[in-house]
Amino acid sequence: MKRLLSGILLASGLWVLTGNLSSRAETLVVKKSQEQSELFYNYDGKKIHLEQRNDVIAVAFKPEATRNTNVPLYIKLQQDFRRNRDAKVEIEPLNKHYALMKLASNGGNSTVMQLRLSQKAYVDNTLPVFSRRKHSEEIILPNEIIVSFEEQISPYEKQVILNRHKLEIIRPLRFSKNRYVVKSTTKSGTDILKVANQVYQAKGVKSATPNFILLRNKDVSHKAKEAIDRFKKGQIKPQFGFQTNLRLQQWHLQSNPLRACLTKFTDDVDKCLSRGLYKQSGLSLPSTGIRATEAWRNSKAGKGVVVAVLDSLIQWNHPDLVNNIYKSGDIKDKRRGEMNGWDFADDDADTKMSQKEFSTFGSIFQDSYRLSDDSLLEKYGGIPLIRKLLRYKPQIGLSRKDIVKILRDYLRYEVTGLFHGTFVAGVIAANSPEINGLSGVAPQASILPVTIGKTLFHPLYGFEQSIEMYDVVEGIDYAVARGADVINMSFGGFLPTAEVKNSIIRAQNKNSNIVFVAAAGNETDLEVSFPAAVKGVIAVGATNINGYRAPYSNFGNGLTVVAPGGDTRAKIGLRGAILTTGGTGTDNFWRGILIQPKSPWGSSFDKRGKYVRVEGTSFSSPVVAGIIALMKGEDPQRRLSRKDIISILKHTASYDALSLSNREKEIYKYLVLSGKVPDGVSIEQYFFGSGLVNAHTAVKQVQRQLRKYGK
Question: CA-CA to 588 of 20 to 30 Å: which in 201, 360, 491, 503?
Answer without folding.
Answer: 491
